[in-house]
Amino acid sequence: MLYHLLYPLRVDFNAFNVFRYITFRTLCAGLTALVLTLALGPLFIRLMSRYQLGQQVRDDGPQSHLKKQGTPTMGGILILASVLISTLLWADLTNPYIWIVLGVMVAFGFIGWLDDFRKISLANSKGLSERSKMLLQTLFALAAIWLLFGHHGLSTRLYLPFFRQLTPELYWLYGVLAWFVIVGTSNSVNLTDGLDGLAIGPVITTAATFGIFAYLAGNAKLATYLFIPYIKDAGELAILCSSIVCAGMGFLWFNTYPAQVFMGDVGALALGAALGTVALITKNELVLALVGGIFVLEACSVIAQRVSYKTRKKRVLKMAPIHHHFELSGWAEPQVTVRFWIISVVLAMLGLATLKLR
């Protein structure tokens, strides 16, 4: 909005020419999201506490988590609101990718809100059934995939990070991969959201990494130099990614141990789906599995636990997801969180290194 209001004034005031630069607007969007989250956080927490919209803790989870019962939840609303406002203020609103990613984020946030609201209203930790949640996620993901590849004509080639010339054409199979990326990332972030500050840390590092990828992919010269696919208009997504990074930092102020508010499904599902969609647009689907390795690890731990128990009646972990396994192994909650953050930062660095290994 500000871009459209202020950039035309460059004709009379040369200083407004700065609004043409994505880097400037990316920084401004991030600062806006950070300030909004920090400013609105205390009010949000008070409102959630006043109306008793608190976390419903699993009875079969770690016993140390029972004290978290009633802690305000649905903090994802705060994150999403900050991301939406800052992105709409600073992004070029004629860019279709901005609207598609925001649409996916809001749609998956709605699914998460339904899940969280059901948990609170029924006073249990079950929420929506897995079938209902998957159906809604699939419908919204397919709509985004059609817009990206059917309407806007994004390539259905798969770009492999370590092989410059190897770009197989997947045709309709790419739709299956795209669905898996969006829905899989959404649910993986949700599974990671089990300890104070645990999920938002890797979300921040992943969003920051893909903000860089988006900027590079949207710049023809840099994309050519780095041998990555040039995606016209993708650079504007750096603004949205910056908003996620800084809104996440602001949220972490209140979500760090001991948490004053939890993200809830409304935040986890939405942010995961948004990151998956950005990965598809920038053609970094496989790199997402590396940069978001913490999410992959959490999801695989749940799958392994379920498969092992159903086939052998034995568990491979003390409790899934794997962060609970480490808790029950004697790690304090902040230890698990910070160590997972460190791993996430290292994975982000490795993801960025793939830019030069092509």
Would you write up a description of this structure?
Helix content is 66%, strand content 0%. The protein is built from 14 helices and no strands. It is mostly helical and 358 residues long. It has one domain. It starts with a helix and ends in a 5-residue tail after the last helix. The mean pLDDT is 92. Helix 2 packs antiparallel against helix 3, helix 4 runs antiparallel to helix 5 and helix 11 runs antiparallel to helix 14.
Count of distinct strands: 0
**Strand residues, percent:** under 5%
Number of domains: 1
Shape: globular
Secondary structural class: mainly alpha
Rg result = 20 Å
Low-pLDDT regions: none
Instruction: Write the element-wise H/E pattern from the N-terminal end onward.
Output: HHHHHHHHHHHHHH
Mean pLDDT value: 92
Biggest sheet, open or closed, and with what strands and sense?
none
Helix content: 55-70%
Helical segment count: 14
> In whole angstroms, how far apart are the ends?
38 Å
Can you summarize this structure?
The protein has one domain. The chain is mostly helical and 358 residues long. It is built from 14 helices and no strands.
Tell me the layout of helices and strands:
Elements: H1 2-6, H2 22-50, H3 76-90, H4 96-122, H5 130-151, H6 173-192, H7 200-217, H8 220-226, H9 237-255, H10 264-281, H11 285-291, H12 293-312, H13 322-328, H14 333-353
Helix pairs in contact: 2-3, 2-9, 3-4, 3-9, 3-10, 4-5, 4-10, 5-6, 6-10, 6-12, 7-9, 7-10, 7-14, 10-11, 11-12, 11-14
